[in-house]
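=== RUN LOG ===
request id: a7f3
mode: sequence -> structure
chains: 1
length: 785
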Amino acid sequence: MGTLRGRERTRKGWARRGAVSALGGAAVLLSLLAPPGPRPVPAAASEPAFGSVNYAVAVDESASLAPEDMKAERAAAARIALGDVSSSSNVTVFGFAAAESDGQRAVDPVCPRTTLDKPGRESVGACVDKLRSRKKSEGTGTDFPSAIRQGVHDLSTGTDPSVPRVLFLLTDGKMDVSGSPKYGDPAHREAEGERQLELELKNAAEQQVQIWPLGFGPAPDRKQLDRIAAGGFQKGCVELPSARPKASKVSGAKDVGPTLEKIFAAAHCLRYERGPSNRPPATLEIGISPLATVGSIVVDKGDPEVTVTYLDPSGHEVPTSGTYRASRFELAGAGGAVEALKIVDPVPGIWKVKAEAPEGHRSLPVGVSVLWQGELRGSITMDPPSPQAGEKTTVTMRLQTREGYEIKDPDDYAGLRVRGELTGDGFAPVALDLSDDGKGADPDGSDGSFTGSVRIPKSAGGALKVSGTLTASGLSADTRSETGQVAPGVLPVTAALTLPDADTHPGSTVTGTLAIHNTSDTPHTLRLSVADLQDGLLSVTPAETEVKPGESGTRKVTVEVAPEDVFGDRLGDDGLRLGGTVTVVDTTDDDRTLVRSPLSVRVTPEPGIWDMYWWAFLTAAVVVVLAVLAVLAWLRQRRTRRDPFGLVLRLVSETGDILGEHPAGHGHKQWYEFAVVEPHRSPRIERRNHGPYAVQRSPEGGAVLRERGGRRTRLTASGQVPLTDSLSLALGEETRIRPPRTRTTRTRSTRWPRPSRSRTTTPSTPTTTPATGEGGSSSTYDSYL
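=== RESULT ===
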C-alpha cells in the first residue's frame, strides 16, 4: 500500500499531501449544519463496484480457551463484521464446542444471517457479545466437523453461488471429540472424528466454501489448521496466491483481532493496514490510498465509554452519517467496544482518529485499522499506432484511478499482475510481456508504467488490437485495449507530438508542438482530443487543424487544465497528477490514428500571495527592520548628543573672573538641573532637582540653558549667558569622567579631586561642589583635560 509513503508525503505537503491514509467524525449535528464545500471531483464515469461476500464466523467456545482469548474472539468477530465495506455482504456468527450429553449441542447460533447494511452492522456488533466460554455442563470439547457443517449449511442455503462463500474458523486448533457420543464408542471417536472432518471438508469444496482457520492459544495444531485450509474451496476472489485460503496463527489474545482482519481482507479481496494504538486521550493517524473507492476505519476502543471523532486529511471533522464533501459516511457499533466508520469515495491522505474517555476508562489502548477496496484502471498505447508489418511497436500501460489520476507509488499497486496481448487480422494472438522494472523497453522502473515491445507479424494486414489486463487483490480487475491499423506503406501524412511533463495550476495551460508532414497533393484534416481521462479535467486546442498539400512544419498545441472548483478538496496540498492521452487522427485517411501521446500533468493549488511574493515580503520585512534599527540608532545618537554629562559649567563674575567650575552629570530627560547657592557671599553651582536652571547639549555645539518659566538661551562654547544681575554662566573645558563604580559602602579614603582654576582666579575663590546624581549622590570624575 502507498499509505506509509503517503504518510511521509502528507507530513511534508499530502502537510503537504497531505495523510497515509482513512476517515470519520463525531460532532454530527455541527458537521451537518456546516456549509457544504465544493464537490471535489465530478462524478466518475461509473459508480464504484463493491464486491459482496457471504461469510460465516465460527468461534471456538471450548474450555481450553483462556478468558482473555474469548474476549479477543468476540472483539475480532465484531471487527470483521463492522469493517466490511459492502452493504450487500451477509454474515452469520456462531459458537461451537462439542455435544457431550443429551440436551447439549455442538453449535451455538449467535447471529443469524444478516445483511451488512447500516442496521445489520449495528445488530451484528451487539449479538457477538453472546459468545462465551462454555461450562462443563454445556459440553467443552472441540467439534470441527460440526462447526464446518454448520458454516457450509449457512453459506450455501438460499444464497447466490456466484457470490464468494467464506468461513472463518477461530479455534485453538485442537480437535477433541473424545466426549461426544455421536462419534461412536470412546475407543474409536478420534478416528471417526477425522473421517467426518474429511467428509465435511470435501463438502465445503463442492459447495465452493473457502475455509480460513485462525489458531491461537498456547499450542495450536498448525498441521491440523493447514489441512482444514487446504480442504475447502481453493479458488479465491481473484486469481492471485494472496486470495488462496491459508491458516494463520496468533501469539496472544491482543493479536487475534488484527490477524483476523488481515485474513479477512485477503479472503474478501480488501486492502488492509494496521494502524497505531494508544491509551486515550490520543490522536491516531491512519492513511488511505488514492485508489480507494470505499473503506472502513475500524476502531477497537477496548472500553465502550471511549468516544471517537474523525478528521479528514484537510482537518475537517466529518459526520458519522450522510454525505459531506462528496463522500458518504456510515458509522456502526458506536455504543460498543468496536466501532467502524464506512466511507464511500474517501478523500485520500492522512486521516486522524481522536479517542477520548472519561476518568476511570483510560486504561485500555485504542487501536485503529483500515480496510479498503478500490479500482485501478489502465491507459494503453501503441507507438507507432499504425505500424507496418514487420515493424516493432512499443506498448505501454499506465496505471490510473477511475477518475484518471496517475498512480506512481509502487506500494499502491503492490501484488499487481499485468497481462497483455496483441491480436489482429492475419496472425495468431501474441502475448505481450509488460513490466515496470526499468529494463528493456521500460525506461523507468516502479513508476506505474508497464512497458514492452512486440514486432508486428509480417502476415498482419488490416486491424490491430493491443489489450492489457490488470489484476490485484483489493482492486477491481480492469482490461484496456487500443486499436490500430497496419500501415499499407508510407503514410501520406505523418505527425509527431511533443508535450512536456508539466507542473501547473488549475485554469492554466501547457504548451507543446505538433510536427506535421504532408507528402500528398491533397489537404488533410487532423483531429486532436484527450482520452483516458475523466471528461472536463483537460482539454486540447486546436480541436482540428488542416494540413495543406506538401506542407511541412509545426503547430502550437495547448492543453488547458480545468478550474479549481472542479477539483475541490481532492487537489490537496500536494496536488494531483493527471494522466491522459492526446490522440491525433487523420480524418481524411479513414480516421487513421497518427499519434497517441501520453500526457502527464501535475496540478497543484494556485499559490497564495505569500507563495508568489514571499521574496517581496521578506525584502520588505528586512527593509522595515533596518529602518527601525536606523531610527532607533538615530534616536539613541540624538539622545547621546543632548545628554549634558561631561559639560563643565563656569560661574563668571561681572569683572570676568571665574568664581567656580561645576561638572554636569547625566540629566533628567536630558536636562541637568541646578541652582546658584549663596550668590552674594560665596557663589557656587549645586545640582538641584527642579532647580531654577537646567542645561543640555545642543546638537549644533555648546549647550542650551533653560530658566524657570521656560525661557531657553543658546550657550556657545565661547559665550556667556546671564544668570543674575552679577553672575553669568559659561562653558569650561570638558572633563573625561569615569562611569560610577558600584560599591556597597563609602570609605573614608574617597576623595573628590579639585577642579583646575583659571589664572585669573583669586586665592579666595571657593572650591566647586561636585555634581550629584539623580538621588543626590556624588559622581566620580578624573582630572580635567
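=== NOTES ===
Residues 1-49, 737-785 have pLDDT under 50 and may be disordered.
Residues 609-642 form the longest helix (34 residues).
=== END ===
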